[in-house]
Amino acid sequence: MCSRRGNMPPRSVPPFRVALLAVSLLVPLPARSDESAPHFAADRPVDMKHIRLDMRIDLKAKSAQSRATLDMAALRDVRHIALDAVDFKVQSVRIQQQGGEAIPCDFDHDGEKLVLNLPEPLPAGAELTALIDYAVTDPDAGLHFFAPSDDEPDAPYVVWSQGQAITNRYWVPCFDHPNEMQTTEIIATADAPNIVISNGRLVSKKPNPDGTTTYHWSQEQPHVVYLMTLVVGQFVSQTEHWRGRPVTYHVPEVHKDKIKNSFASTTRMMEFFSRKIGVEYPWDKYDQVCCYNFGGGMENTSATTLTEGTLHDDRAHLDQDSEGLVAHELAHQWWGDLVTCREWAHIWLNEGFATYFEALWAEHSQGPDEFAVNLHRKARGAIEGGRDKPIVWQNYTDPDQQFDGRAYPKGAWVLHMIRRRLGDDLFWKVINTYCTRHRHQNVETIDLRRAIEDVTGRSFGRFFHDWTERPGAPEVTVEYKWQPDDMLAALDVRQTQKEDAFAFPLTFEFRFESDDLPHVFTADITDKREKFYVSLKRRPSMVRVDPNQAVLMTLREKKSRDLWIAQLEADPNPVRRIQAAEHFGESPDAGHTDLLAKRLAMEPFWAVQEAIAAALGASDSPAARDALLKGLTLENPRARRKVVETLGGFRDEPEVEKALFALVRKGDPSYRVEAEAIRAWADVCAGNPTDELTKLLSRDSDQEIIRSAVLESLGAHGGKAVLDTLLDWMKPGRPIACRAAAVTAAASLLESGELGDTARERTTDAIAACLRKTTRRLQGAALRALEQLGPDAKDALPEIDRLARTGQLRTRAAARRAAETIRSASPAARQPDEIAKRLSKLERENESLRERIEELEAKGKAAAGTAAAQ
Q1: What is the domain-level CATH number for residue 435?
Q2: CA 32, CA 43: separation in Å to the nearest integer?
Q3: Sign of CA dihedral 715, 719, 721, 727
Q4: Is 201 within the bounds of a domain?
Q5: Domain-terminating residue out of 280, 310, 333
Q6: Which domain CATH number covers 73?
Q7: Do 477 and 496 contact (CB within 8 A), yes or no?
């Protein structure tokens, strides 16, 4: 019979490491590099075939008692099998082979890895079943329990999982790596009337005599572990069908009337994606469940989990929708779930695809103008996020580092550039080939490149080098001049980035006042500077650079004023009109202001109206003010909100203050316009706005949009007299959105310098308290506030460090940033010479200790060898 070592404590730390850790508490260490040795796909000694979990969920105890049945086959001879299993209370492990009886198995568990010590080696090809009984109680990550408490009195009893990137190991014993696929099964029992939602097909739902209900879910097609999901709670569910598959929306009862605003397009999206990809939606059903305190969305196979924030009422629906988020997570059912990146360095194959398909849905459902603006806004994040690292970056220290602008918007732009180079027909043929060839498989970037080259015969080596293997994007300046004597358009194209030239085709389109067809010229740009001369029949009235947004770049143009005016007034692409408005806003003069004022009243598209309003804000002239005041009547609420925001910059203007106050008093059909009016009026108010703002705290709105604006304005303008009000709105029991806004407001008040030492300490402590066992939104606000406070927030570092390890994905990233800022701003961190000396001494002491340990180990081995010989 095998021995049982069970839940062993972590191994003791060697003495020299203890010394290092002790001193590190006293000496602020330099910021740790965000790079490590390169990562590659994880080793797979066995092939995990199937994971079955039999679970009893206790929401009040925040616990899960489970038995995991793992079916696996050896890929090589193995003696030990190491599973990811963090903080489990392991009760027993048994193994079973070839239909024999299950026998106890020796195991080690250090709190992170569960190692099965097999009684004899498992030969390559042999199959094994492991049965593991264990419990988890309120784990730090992976499985998130919520219940009413002093900090969250309004929290529901609910649990939901979040496995990406590597946190399902907190409740599922597994190989928690994206290159391992298996089928899964969850049989979960919970107290009625709670429901259980998981992956795949609902095999059965059985009420039990003890008042519980058992749900049996079976995911019969393979997927990766991080996509396993479990949600248990009370929800209202609505179901429709698409091609015979159930499509169900689960929301808390209080939000049931908002389902249509968020999810009405789901089945049309499923149809669109299935048709364009050429691969039908691949799973048995599609669930979307909105959970308390969940952030964003997570594309668990066949069962997406979403934030409650995506649910909104009819008034909010005027200028808010869930289309982008819903489309993004649905697209993942192909890109990420059916076809999954093999290693986190290639996560853009999941996230970039989903982000681009989100834009493709906008193109299909709302038209080319919305698509163009969608891509334009993604370009900003793509350029900034990809400035320092390539898309495929293997030297990360934590998989979370990959979920940034490189994976999402830059990845989307890579696909868009491929589409523009190939044309739609070839692009969709490539997409179908790539998806069909690799369904239920892992992929790396080379697999997409091979699909392109196999389908088209074109070499894409340079393309993938430029856009996935190196950081940055081209910074392009195009200077245009007309040479009338030769009837030539002279084009001087420069790449001004410090790095080597990128290679890309750049298209120019010349339009004329007559009815002549546009003249289109495409040049292959390969050097840092190139000149081209294009023969034309007459001088063009419009010169369009990259008219179809085919290149991710920072573009500056040098051309005459009349061409900029033509672009502002008549370019068919709204992005080019936006760029013209920005051009005139950069050099405000009377002529430019009059031009923009006239155009604001005539421009038909909301995003261009926004850009014109912002450009007018660069001028403090009466003409700009008057144009913006007229803009308060714009029909589109998004454009109207930008007008209101811009008017908030016109101080000492009685007409502006009067108009904004009238809007505040009257309200607006849009919550967001009304909230922006409150902020803008408070900014321009000649007197003290505190009394009027305090009255506005009585206004209700969906997701507390209006009250949040009031609280933030109180923090910005109310002075120390409003501190008690802000602290009251930060307390448990207040709406989470209001607590978060009060935290932001309190941080503004602290930065103003008006508070004395006692009040500062009291306020900082109240903000830090919002980190503990609260919602993601409130934690995010508190982290941003503490980051602003710098060294004054040093007492909160232990809690910030905890969130950096165990928070949700974006919370972990925010906590790491806050901790780095607080530490780097502390007085001790500004003593590099002293730190360097102390570290140098510490390293010498550690080296001496290492040498002594190595000497002792060598002597021990020698003694053991002598004893063996004797």
Answers
A1: 1.10.390.10
A2: 27
A3: positive
A4: yes
A5: 333
A6: 2.60.40.1730
A7: yes
State the Cα–Cα distance between residues 603 and 572, nearest whole angstrom: 12
Residue 379, token pair as written in the block: 């370009």
Answer yes or no: is 258 within a domain: yes
Entry field: residues in the chain = 870
Residues 457 and 497 in one domain: no
Distances (CA, A) of 493 to 45, 130, 505, 525, 555: 54, 64, 12, 8, 10
The tally of CA atoms less than 13 A away on the side-chain side of residue 114 is 30
Write the CATH number for 582: 2.60.40.1840
Distance CA 217, CA 161 (A): 15
214 and 66 share one domain:
yes
Structure tokens that stand for 746 in this block: 């309190």
Tokens of 198: 């998981």
Divide the 870 residues of the chain into consecutive groups of 10 and give the mean pLDDT of each group: 39 33 34 74 97 98 98 98 98 93 97 97 97 97 94 93 97 98 98 98 98 98 98 98 98 97 98 98 98 96 97 96 97 98 98 98 98 98 96 95 96 98 98 98 98 98 98 98 98 97 98 90 98 96 98 98 97 98 89 95 97 94 96 98 98 97 98 98 96 97 97 95 96 94 95 91 93 86 93 91 83 91 70 50 57 52 40
Three-state DSSP at 22 gives helix
Distance, in Å, from the CA atom of 126 to the CA atom of 537, rounded to the nearest integer, reads 77
Domain end call among 587, 605, 632: 587
Same domain, 191 and 81: yes
User: Tens digit of pLDDT for each residue in 494-507?
Assistant: 999 999 999 999 99
Enter the tokens of residue 583: 């051009």
Question: Does an H or E element contain 485, and which?
Answer: none
Same domain, 167 and 78: yes
- Are residues 320 and 375 located together in one domain of the fold? no
Range of the domain at 543: 475-551+553-587
Q: Look at the chain and report how many structural domains it folds into.
A: 5
Q: What pTM value is reported for the model?
A: 0.90
User: Does 85 lie in the same domain as 201?
Assistant: yes
Please indicate, yes or no, whether residues 496 and 456 belong to a single structural domain of this protein: no
**Separation between Cα atoms, residue 11 and residue 13, nearest integer Å:** 6
**pLDDT tens, residue by residue, 690-712:** 999 999 999 999 999 999 999 99
Q: Is the dihedral of CA 511, 514, 519, 525 positive or negative?
A: negative
Cβ atoms of 174 and 40 within 8 Å: the answer is: no
Which contiguous run of DSSP H or E holds residue 737?
A: helix 736-752
Specify whether 185 is located in the same domain as 59. yes
Report residue 49 as tokens: 């075939």
